[in-house]
Amino acid sequence: MDLVSARASRNVAYYGVFKVGTPPVGFTGCFDTGSSDTWVPSSQCNDEACVTHTRYYSSSSSTFRPLTRSFSITYGTGEVTGRVGYDTVTLGDKATITIPSQGFGQVLASSSDFTTASCDGLFGLGFPDLTNMQAVPAFFNMISQGVLDAPTFSIYLNPDPSQEPSGQIEFGGYNTGHFVGTLNWAPVVDKAYWTVGLDSVAVGGVSANVTAMTAILDSGTTAILVSQADAIAIHAGIPGVTYNMAGSYFSIDAGCAGVDMLPNISFAINGNVYALPPWQWTQAITSSSGGSSALCISAIIPGGDPRAIILGNNFMRSWFTVYTYDVNSRAAHVGFGAAAAMASSKR
């Protein structure tokens, strides 16, 4: 097993380091279970979003193999386009996992949205069905090349993101010290995203009338994204919240000082209940200078698909997650365990 240490940027994004090429060049990457593609800025990209980050020089790598295939990916914020190639990718704080001939994108054009991003590029951890590059995603390439001790990776986000490192992504297994109690498993029901069945959502122990029947584990999403109708249904059971129509968010009427008085919100998955304390499903608004205000908002954000709730970093700071895939049966599962130190993480 080996791990990649993760760091938090303003408590909204997590990134680690992976290396590309021979000799290897390090890139900060957002490790994203909601995407299957890996990409880095190319030396041929002169957009501001590229030149402000580490760029990849294919001519400097002895293991690079070009392809004529191009790609274009549009995200919730921003777009990247470029061409696909193959090169050696290495992972881990000690660089002990080597993935020869990994397909990845060399970004030739990037929208300005990525200019201030903490990540140079993206490291996709999703399923092959989700790829835009028609390249085997890195996790599945690791499995097929036999470089992992087990067909597993795990994500630990420290409940207190002010600590360093703010988390760890482990390939080939998981650290039992990252969770308390037992792991509960849920089968993946849609092999594009890491999607599990959702039994119900409750606020303070009272069931909310939501329409979503699945939940997607997405480390590339900051908050918890739900449909407009489900956002209203969930917040209807929370006293002292107000919907801000202009900003499409729910604010806490008493501000951050009133967060402790709010109820837990829980998600039932495969017969097990995963509760979020109020300081994990709310978010203090941080100014561009880094200072915080007295304003706190709900991290349960409207605008998602009515069929699925996206469980992002706010969920993962409370619940350690493990992702596994069985090559023979093609069955995938997600494991959930209470994140270690959660009890002392109250801000």
TrEMBL record:
Keywords, in A-Z order: Aspartyl protease, Disulfide bond, Hydrolase, Protease
InterPro entries in UniProt: Aspartic_peptidase_A1, Aspartic_peptidase_AS, Pepsin-like_dom, PEPTIDASE_A1, Peptidase_aspartic_dom_sf
Domain (Peptidase A1) ranges: 14-337
Active site positions, chain numbering: 32, 218
UniProt entry tagged with the keyword Glycoprotein: no
SUPFAM superfamilies, per database record: Acid proteases
Disulphide bond pairs: 45-50, 256-296
Pfam annotation, one family: Asp
Matches recorded under Gene3D superfamilies: Acid Proteases (2.40.70.10)
Record GO biological process: proteolysis
A GO term, aspect molecular function: aspartic-type endopeptidase activity
Family: Belongs to the peptidase A1 family.
Protein name: Peptidase A1 domain-containing protein
Organism of provenance: Elliptochloris bilobata
